[in-house]
Every structure is written in structure tokens, then in C-alpha cells.
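Supplementary Methods S3. Input chains for the assembly prediction are listed below.
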Amino acid sequence: MSVQAESRRTPAKGTMVLEARNIVKRYGHVTALDGANLELRAGEVLAVIGDNGAGKSTMVKVLCGAVIPDQGEVLLDGVPVHFTSPLDPRKRGIETVYQDLAVAPALDIATNLFLGREVRCRGILGSWFRLLDKRRMKSEAQKEMAELKFRLPSIDSAVEDLSGGQRQGVAVARAAIFARRLVIMDEPTAALGVRESGEVLNLIRTIRDRGLPVLLISHNMPHVFELADRIHIMRLGRRVALTTPQKHTMGEVVAIMTGAMPGNDQASGADGPSAA
Amino acid sequence: MNIVTPRLTHVGENIASVPSERTKRTRSKNFSQFLRRAWAGLRFTFGVFVLLALATLAGFPTSSNAAGSKDEILIGLVTKTEVNPYFVKLRQAATAEAEKKGAKLLARFGKFDGDNEGQVAAIENFISAGVKGILITPSNSTGVLGAVKKAREKGILVIALDTATDPADAVDATLATDNFQAGVLQGQYARKALGAKAPKLAMLDGTPGGSVDNQRHDGFLKGFGIKEGDPAIVGKQNTHGALDEGQTAMENLLTAHPDINVVYTINEPAAEGAYAAIKKAGKQQDIVLTSIDGGRLGVKYVQDGKIAATVMQFPKKMATRGVDYVIDFAKTGKKPSGFIDTGAELITDKPFSDLPSKDTKFGVENCWG
Amino acid sequence: MAPNAVASINRGTVSLGRAIATPAVGPLVVLLVFCAIFSLSTHTFLAVGNLSLIIQQSVIVGTLAIGQSMIILTGGIDLANGAIAVLGTIVAGRLVNDGNNPALCLLLAIFLCTLVGVISGLLVSRLWLPPFIVTLGLLGIVTAATRLIAQGGAFPVTDDLLSWTGNSAIRDGSGVTYGMLIMFGLYVLVWYLLTQTAWGRHVYAIGNNRPAARLVGIPVQSRLLSVYVFAAFLYGVGAWLALGRIPNADPNALQNANLDSITAVVIGGTSLFGGRGSIWGTIVGTLIVSVLRNGLTLSGFDPLWQDLVTGVLVISAVAVDQISRGKQR
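Predicted C-alpha cells for the full assembly:
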């Protein structure tokens, strides 16, 4: 039995999983999001890219509940949801991996995987004495790591003894284990070197192959082109293009991102300046 | 069964800014090199430490003989603190006397005024060490009673120095200044020096609750001829016997009551502080500043005219006599008992014929600090 | 006898490396080395009565250090723990002196101590004030409040319940006091909470990487609050133990207990940066300080050596922690 297998839903490929419609977010007189749309479909890796200030991090914060939008709606499986705290998306099966290593370095891998979601013993020991079921957590952790084909020295070693890539791998694995709808990854490789990034990219692929859609926010074009099924390009608070690595080259994508080339997104209209 | 349904108890937590928070702990390579070197250094230090420990071990037999031999008389001394020169002198005098008589003195002290725990631990450790007698200046008149009782049950002579316990017969004997009587002397002098002027008294006390502090305070009032609560007392402050606190207290009192004309201080550091405040206000001529203790600096303040008079006590006498009593007890089994007054003398260069006093020459020769 | 001691010292050098991995091992070795030295240099150190004494002398700081450990594990620090315990002794001492029911007075005293923890916990967890500042402020406030309640006096404790913790358990003269049993019981309890429950893992995670703790959904605020409240409750129990040890409630007592408890925690191998350490290290750290005080007295050394050696140990402990953290980067 996998930890989450029975509750993870794998809809038909192409079904809309997460959708954001016409999101507006202003900070004072700065408009971070100006009617932005986003759609994530089942079984895909959707890369969200954009220059600094294009609104992609605000978009992510809206989707993971850290920012409440001024206008617009977010739909999960077609049903409107209102995220007011980062815990709300988690309850609905959305896990987020952050750029910073969101792990406790002194604690071991199994503890980190189950941090905040510890499993207690059954019966009185668990309910009255709050005794942790360490053995069970450890074996589940081992099984999950094996399923994710993520190799580690030992499930008992402290996270700080791992390489940077392995550490981020722990955070990614945690998201993969507990996510039931989708995983959001906010610059998961930004703090890593080239080889270390590779381990994380492999994990992301494994996650997609297991049926979870991934929303990948990244600056790193090679990574985006290596992984993404579709590319969502943001500029000035809107989506200006939705394309695929096959349709556009890396140079063209960068051109769209910087405004040197027009995008193709009809819904968002022209890519003229729109800050209020 | 879904064993990992998240148990989220804390939905409302505001963590809006979290994703942008970041831990900035990237260390430079240089620093990690430094750490490696430091680590090597530490291993070396540990090695030295082990060697030192071995050396100490090797050197121990002599000191352990000294501490443990049956012939040598061990005496324990517990003072209040090691920051007050009064207790330092007392300890030094006791050590010297013990050496002179061929006994060994173990000295311990509290870390601060009121460190009952430290004093009790010292007494207990003395009992373990097998002392014949314990001399103690208790931080608190009741705080050490339990440990003192244990010591006496083991047949150890316990003598209180400087400060009596409550009840006084909890120890075998008390060697001390009669602080109340010393306060009376101080008060009598202050009254005479003031002359016919209506008193406006400022009192710079020590630590609230200290028994010596209370006795001196009450004695002063008796000698001065007024009662607690008399309107002549315009202000009271706690200085903890410290110079800086004495100065601050006096400054504040003078601001509130510029007409103060007589000042009681718990000890000479407090008096020195008070003098600084008085001088700043230009009131040296208008105020009679008196103190108590009889330290070297205190006598000098009297010589310099900063303090009108101080009352001298004789801690060396307490120490030497205390040591003598223990040695006597160890040899003959004779115990002293009761309150043994080591006396107090008024020291001033402006004496009054009807109030016995000594001049500062005597003071310099007999002072303790 | 001598070869044994040498052997244990050598073992010390060897296992210092492992001490980094298991925080309580290094301090334990240091403790054993000191015990070996003192048992060789004096005849009295190893006497049952003397060993009992050392533990009795550790009971107050040892108990305060439990709370201090938990707070330091979250990355905080508590400068007010001694003051809170003194508040407890004065409240209980004075109320009982006024002729009130001792059991009620004791409960009230412990409750008041816990209440101070609610205040510090709320300030730290809701307003995110630095624990150093909060507890520094509380140190002043609680000390002043205690003096106001004491009104310049100290209160000798004659009541049996208040001084019960100083009594011998099992049988008279066994050298085991109820206070010791309570302290060890509290250590076991806190060990259980810290290592066998989710709460404890959250405490470590908060001290280790607080932003991460929040991101993974740990209720950081309520965990922090609970740590401060529980610690203050332990200080209240510490007040009871203090009354058993010295049956005299003195507002001037325990002025250094805050630093002493920090010393014990640090010597015990817990990181001042939070998130690393073991509660067993803390009891070992407390015992090291007591063993030094006792052993140096027995062998006739100047008491200043105790402060000197303790200072060296504190710096070494922090250096080891710092270096082991550095190595991992």
C-alpha cells in the first residue's frame, strides 16, 4: 500500500485540474497581476516563465494560498476554491516545493518526510500518549523513496549530511508523497548546481509519470525545455503566450518573455503596458 | 485506512510572506577552511587538556594529603560574596591566621548577596570534606539553617561571622559587630553634628530584608532620636551598598528634597556615591554625611572630609578569633557560645567631647580594607 | 585505580568525534573524567552521601535547565527562569506564612509561574519579539513584582508540604530525596515528549529551520506558546524543589540561575542556535558544574577554579557545536 495511492485521483490526460481566471492583484499602485489566466491539465508539466516582475511569483502565491487575489477565481477540478492560507491548498491535495530548502537539516530523512504529518501508533499509545509510530514512518518513507527511484545513503541519515540536490530531493519527495491533485514547484533548482539539478529534474519526471500534474516555475530555460509539456509565458502581470517546446525555440520564448516578440494569447489581448 | 490524512490544527496561521523568506547561511570556502583549522586546534586543545588533567592527577597526592590528613585541622569559611572587599579581607585574615596556627582554611563564597543555594552547597561540601569547624557569614539569616543543622549534627563547630542567624542559637556562636549598636553610634554623631537645625534625613539603605541592613538602619534611628515614619525622614532608597546606586539614589533624593541636611548610608561605597551627588549639587557644607563599615577607603573619605564620620568594625578580629575558636575546639573540644561582640568604633576628625571616638590615625592603623 | 582513569581519559579523546554526532556523549565523557580525577584525588568524593549531595545540589538548576533546554531547542533563550522560580517561592512562602492552605498556595504559585510563561510565549509567538528581549524584560518585571510581594522580607518555610521535596524518599538517610525523583521524572517526561511525539519533532524543526517548519504545516505559533508555557510550569515546580532544598523563600535567591541553566544546557551539548541537542546532555551539563564545585572544594582548591573551568567548558562546547555545524555545510 502506498501512503496516498487510494486517495490520489488520476483523471484522464488533458482534463483541467487547476484553473485560474482573470486574477488581479495590486500592491498599492503596483499591479502585480492584471487579469492573469492559468490552466494546468492532467498529466502534464506546465512551466511558468517570465522576467522578473512579470507576476509569476505572485501567481504562485495565489495558487498556493499565500496571497489572496483582489479579483478573479481559482478552480480546482472545475470547482471554485478560496485559498486563504498555505494550509488550504494542502488540504485539497496541492503540495508546493519552494526554492529554499524547506527541510530541517538536523533531522533525519524519514522525520523530514513526515514533518507536520507524523503518524502515531494505533490505539491508546497513539491517542493518549501521542506515541509516534517511527517504524511505520520509516518503512513508508523507504517504500516511497524506492517508488520515486530516489537513491539515498540511508533513510536514517540527517538531511544535512546529504548533497544539496538530495536535500531538495527530500522536499520534492515529500510533495510527491502527499500531493493528491498536483505539485507546484517554485524554482526548485535555483539553489542547486548542474549535477544536483539533474537528480531533482528526474524526480519531477517520475512524479509526472505517476500521474500528478506539475506546475513548474523556473528561470532556467534548459530545464524548462527539458521537462515542460507546455510553457506558460508571463509578462506585465498577464499570460502573453501558451506554447510548447516544440512550437517555439528557446530564443523565441525569451523574446516573447521580454516583449521583443508578440505572444499568441488571444484572451489576454495585446501585450501592451497595462500597469495602472 | 488513510494513515496520513493531514491533521491540520492551525489553519488561520498568517504566513503570507513565507515563500519569500529565505535562510541566508551560505558560508564561504574560506570560512569552512577556517573551521577545519579551528577543529584541528580544538583537538589539540583537548589533548593538552587531557595532559593537564593527568598532570593535576600526578600533582594531587600532595594536595590530597593536605586536604585529607588526619593531623591537619580543616576549617571551612563561607563568605557572602567575593566582590565586597570586606569579605575578601575577612577571608585573607582567616587564611593567614590558619596558616600561622598550622591549620588549613577552605574558603567558599556566594556569587551574589542572597546566594543561599551557593552557601548551602558550600557548607554541604565542607561537611563532605571533613572540616572541624565552619565559619559563615550568612547571606540570609534563615537561608542556611538546614545545612548548618546538618553540620552541627556531624559534630562540626559552626560560628556565624559578621551576621547573626535567626534564631541566633542555630549556630554555636556568633562573632560580629553589634550592628544595631554601631548604627546607634552613627546616629548619635549625626544628631550632634547637625546641631540645632531641624533634621531632613535621607537614608541610603542596603538591600531590602538584609538583617545587618535593618539593624544598622534601626540603630541609626535610635541614636538619632527619631522613630521609623518620622516626618524628618524625607526619603529612603536601596543602594545595595554600591557606589553607583548610592550616587543615583542621592541625586534623585536631592532633586526631590533640596533641603536634605543629614544623610545615613549603609556603607562607605554608598557614601562615596552620595558624596559625588552632594558635591555636584554644591551642598558639601550643608549636609552631614555619615557612614558605617570602616574600610580603608572609608577612613580616607573621613580624612578627606567627604564623610563626617564612619563607624568602624573589625572583620579581621572576627576572622582570627573564629579560626582560633575552631582550632581550640579541635584540640580541646571546647566550644564558644553566644554572641561575641567584636566591637565598633566611631572614626571622625571632628569629635564631640561627650561622644567617644577615635581619630583617622587610629582608623588608618586598624581599618580592614 | 590509576590505569583505569587514564584509560577513561584516552577514551575521551577518541570519542570526541562521535560526540558531535551524539550530542550527549561528549559531555558524559567530560563528566566521567572529572569524576575519575576527583575520586582519585580525594577519599570522600565517591562516598554515597557525597554523590547524593552533588545531585541534591543540582536539583534546582537541573529542573530550570529542562525548561531552558526546550526553549533553546526552539532557537530561543530564557533569561527569566530563575526570577520566575523565585516568584513561585515568594508567593508560596508568603501566603503560607499568612496562614493559608499550603496545597492551595503551592498550586497558586505554580499557576502564577505558568502564567508568566503564557505572557512570554504570547509575546514570542504572536508578536515575534526576540526571546532574548522578552525574557530580559520579564526578568526585570518578575523580579520587581517578587520584591513587591515580598516587601523586603524573606519567608522561612516551616510547612511540611512546601519543604517535602527535600525529604528523603524510600527511607531516612538514603540520600535520595523526593526532589531528585521529581527532577529525574521530569527529565524522562521531557525526553519522551521531545523524542517520541510529534510535538517534540516540531520543537526541533522550529529551532532547526523555522521557515521550513511553517511551510510543512507545523503550527509554529501554538508550538512555541506551548514550549514557553510548559517551561514556565517547570520553573514553578523548580520553585517547589527550591523550597525543599532551602526552606526559606528569599527574593534575593537564584539570581544567577538563568545563566547557570544556560551554562548547563550549553555544556550539555545543545546548540544555542536551536534545533540540536539532547535533554540528557542538559542533566549531564548540570552535574558537571556540581561535580566541579564539590570536587574542587573537597580537594581544597580555590573556588575561582570552578568558574574558570566552567568558562572553558562553555566555550569548548559552543566551539564544538559551531564546528560540527560548519562541517556539514
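Chain C has 13 helices and two strands. The interface with chain A takes residues 196-199, 201-202, 204-205, 208-209, 211-213, 215-218, 275-276, 328 of chain C (CB under 8 Å).
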